[in-house]
Amino acid sequence: MNFWFSIFRQTGRNLRQTWTTQFMTCLTVSLSVLIFSFFYLIYLNILNAGNKVTDDLRLVVYLDEEPGPEMQKQLRLKISQFDQVQEIKFISREEAYSRFAEQLGDNRDVLTDMPTDFLPASIEVIPLKTLRSLSQIKLFSEYLATLPGSQKVQYGQNWVERFYYFTQLLSIVVLLSGVLLILTATFMVASTIRLTIFARQEELELLKLVGATNNYIRTPFLLEGILQGLIGSLLGLTSLYILFQWITRHFSGAGFLDLFTFTFFPPGIIATIILLSIVLCTAGSYTSMQKFLRI
Amino acid sequence: MTEAAASQTAMIEIIKVGKSYPPNVTALTDISVSIASGEIFFLIGRSGAGKTTLLKLLCNMEKPTNGLIEVAGMNIHQVTGNKLAKLRQRVGMAYQDFRLLTDRTVAENIAISMEVSYKKNQIIRNRVRSLLAQLQLEDKHDILTGDLSRGEQQRVAIARAVANSPALILVDEPTGNLDATSTEQVMELLIRCRNSGATIVIATHDEALYRHSTHRIMKLHNGRLDSLTRGDGQGQPNTAGATDDTGATGGSGDGI
Ligand SMILES: Nc1ncnc2c1ncn2[C@@H]1O[C@H](COP(=O)(O)OP(=O)(O)OP(=O)(O)O)[C@@H](O)[C@H]1O
Ligand SMILES: [Mg+2]
């Protein structure tokens, strides 16, 4: 009880004496949390949107001719030889025609003069949910192209490819900013604590001489580290949340953002970010302390 | 009677202690002495004789180059960590250069030695007030020590050394900047501490402090033990002499 009272008194003194440096460090920590979580939030949302889009990923194999029932059976066999799939659907010329007509809706009268078999027959292959990586999809589509009678395979190549590279890039950015967060937070806190130790060298020496235990000297600095981490990350996350609110309010009308339902971090991730930042800051202050405290 | 019993046991054992500083300054050579519990012990000698060095060894600020120092039966230079902290809480030192925190108030400076041993706030406050009263510094309670005169700083340093009621009090040149009255107050304070059981080692140039006392006096010369004598108690007895008669008698057998 009395121990903690003394510790808090010491911490209060420290903070009062060096609050400008402490404040700057806090800002740095919150800035690096903000940068990191900003990219991470975007990354998560894009992944989310990507999942939704690739949920209805399907490969369409256009065929020269309409396959008969025997042929269909063989094709089915060949496709599932490569990989298990969720669904294989044969689409006849008529079906393709009526689908197209449906898509045209009120404009369907443009089709009146067309023969009902002007569209090619096709096979729709819906791959398993596990088949998600771009290279796998590519391989699969190359395989499908070798099927007898296959004319062309389509799965929105361009779009999928771009999306894939985009998420790759984003994950690198997230990773880098994560590393940046770790480095800056730890380094800044370590050097602040070193500065405050330096500024209070005389007092700390005296404390040792009059018999302060290591814990009495060390704990206030650890508390400072914890506070830096906590306040810094809260500040960073709060500003991100405000930014997030602003963006959703101002862009929710625009068409492209309708695709994504923008969501903020779930509580678990928020807690993890805060915890991580606390741990890093405490580690930073601990290493500085260790150098000083050898008696 | 408690004094007589206490002085049977040695508070400090210094055995063949030498100390040299790099590169080749020899500050102490082959010092051996034993100081009884409850004794007041004077350490004299010319400037540079090694008085401060010996006190620093006693409070574990420096380690001896050779020899052995035991305080309260413990080899203090083998103690580390929390044990060392506990030991230091029981040893109060008033440094020659004071080592006050000049940006803190008088009260805060005195409180430090009690705070580190987790004394209750109320107790700390009372003790600070009582010490300031004894040294006639009541009005300086909230003054920054940096703004005090040398003599006032010196007394604050002494107050801090004795505040936590340590078992061993080391005072380095306690009266260098003080007038006769203040000197007397400081000596009264130290004797009061001795009477409540503390052992006191005083390093000084001030002959007036020990001339009329009956305490043992160790004279250092160039880091060697020059003489170990006992004050003869002659002359008009000052406060130091008058209040003291028991402490020295028991310790007489403890010389080298
Ligand atoms: N840290 C140090 N490094 C090198 N030499 C030192 C150190 N401390 C003390 N000395 C030397 O050791 C010798 C004894 O010094 P000490 O401070 O013990 O003298 P003193 O008796 O206290 O003198 P004074 O009465 O002036 O305070 C001196 O020659 C001094 O120069
Ligand atoms: Mg000295």
Helix content of chain A: over 70%
Provide mean pLDDT of chain A, rounded.
82
SS strand fraction of chain A:
5-15%
**What is the succession of H and E elements of chain B?**
HEEEHEEHEHHHEHEHEEHH
* Rg of chain A, alpha carbons: 31 Å
Q: Helix and strand string of chain A, N-terminal first?
A: HHEHEHEHEHHHHH
Note the beta-strand portion of chain B: 25-35%
Largest interface: A-B, 18 and 27 residues
Structural class of chain B: alpha/beta
Strand count, sense and barrel status of the largest sheet of chain A are:
4 strands, antiparallel
Strand order of the largest sheet of chain B: 6-7-8-3-9-10
The portion of residues assigned to helices of chain B is: 25-40%
Q: What structural class is derived from the secondary structure elements of chain A?
A: alpha+beta
Side-by-side strand order of the widest sheet of chain A: 2-3-1-4
The quaternary state of the protein chains shown equals heterodimer
Report the end-to-end length of chain A measured between terminal Cα atoms.
Answer: 26 Å
Please tally the β strands of chain B and state the result: 10
Protein architecture, described:
- The complex is a heterodimer of chains A (295) and B (256).
- Chain A contains 10 helices and 4 strands, in the order ααβαβαβαβααααα.
- Chain A is α+β, with helices and mostly antiparallel strands.
- A 4-stranded antiparallel beta sheet of chain A has the order 2-3-1-4.
- Chain B is 35% helix and 25% strand.
- In chain B, the strands form 2 sheets. In chain B, strands 6-7-8-3-9-10 form a 6-stranded mixed beta sheet, with helices on both faces. A 4-stranded antiparallel beta sheet of chain B has the order 2-1-4-5, with helices on one face.
- The two termini of chain B are 25 Å apart.
- At the A-B interface, helix 1 and helix 7 of A face helix 3, strand 6 and helix 4 of B.
- The structure holds adenosine-5'-triphosphate (ATP) and magnesium ion.
- Adenosine-5'-triphosphate binds next to strand 2 and helix 2 of chain B.
